[in-house]
Amino acid sequence: MILYKGLPLNKNNSIMWPLCTMSNKELRRSQYVERYISNNISFDELLQTLHVCKRQWRRIISKYRKDWPIALAHGLRWKTGNNKINPNKYDIVKSIIKERYSAFKPTFVTEKLFECNNIKLSDEKVRNIMTEIWLWKPKSRKKEKTIFSLRERKICYWIMIQFDWSYHEWVPWEKWCLLVAIDDATSQIVDAAFCKNEGIEDVFPFWREYLLSCWAPESIYLDRFSTYKSNHPEAPDVTTQFQRVCDTFWIELIFALTPQAKGRVERVNRTLQDRLISEMKLAWISNMGQANIFLKTVYIPNHNRKFSVIPKSDTNMHRELRIEEKEIIDTVFSIHSKRKIANDFTVSFKTQIYQLHSSGPTIFRGEHVRIEERMSWEVVITQRERIIPYTKLDKRPEKWYKEPLAPMKPESHSKLSYFERTWRPHPWMKSSYMRNIKRNTQKEQKIIVTQTSSP
Length: 455
Prior knowledge:
The chain is α+β, with helices and mostly antiparallel strands. It has 14 helices and twelve strands. One of its GO terms (biological process) is DNA integration. It comes from uncultured bacterium.
């Protein structure tokens, strides 16, 4: 029995914990500390969960026993760093470097700032400032010959999951994509599924089912495919839909630079391309539905029994999802898009128009809403985590236009030029112009009269 000194007990003789505000990271850390204090996991297994050294873990546990969960909050949360530069001084240094030392190298700029301007900064700080204002480009290190050394396995189950895909002709004349997830400590296939491609529409159902059945792992080791990581050179920091999901459930993503880095799952794919095809051929499997059932019920248990290894520890390091996380799992595993509200309170999305209703949260013209495409093909529109009711419109309502004027009759063809046909007299010249028109008409009338009177 674990005793916590100074904690009151309620009527049921259970511990009454003090209330304190904590972040998701601290809540996750408290779960593992409680499991260690309850002797469910060892100290070595606790070290594998979070990137914290032994001494720090001992300090955390000792403070946790004295001050309870409040000890997990960082002491410098609301304090500024000791080495942080004053923003005004930072702007002054940037202006000085731009005006005087733009052609200098960072080390020399550091010396000149101290000699001439009495400003003492480190070489790395000056180098970062010059890189920020595009006066210095960091030099890339010389590439050495790549040597791949064997990486030691994790000590217990499900600390790290290796995830990969494999396009292959799994049945005759049909090329499918196989999603495979293995445990790094044992090389067991924890889950696998056939799908059409490695897009987000197939990856989301795979991991949603995994989190609900097997809980959340500590980290996922995978490649740099565009579904998982933005590879555009001008926008490398853009968060993908998969990164957003993993950040929500506090799952660390480790991106491999080479296929050899995640060689264990690559080796499993090679084994599957050799053995699974033959097994499905013997079972007379011809479609994707039968293949998925055969893969999960027959092949994976036999494969794990033959190819898996024994880990150093039998502890399962999966983290159970909290109730709040299970409630939002449908919202998290949906494709999020942002749209702007038009003046008529409509939103356009994928050639479809949605009329928003005022019965939900207060919305205004020009604001942005979040459109969630659920895995069930349902579209949900939310704003500030509240659902906005809507109605689908077949087409946008037609605007009321005035009746257009009747087209003018085309003028008779004339040999006069455009300037002569469109020229109009100035008001000062109007009297003389009208006088000339009368003369011309009188002459034409006389000519007509003489032609009719002649025999």
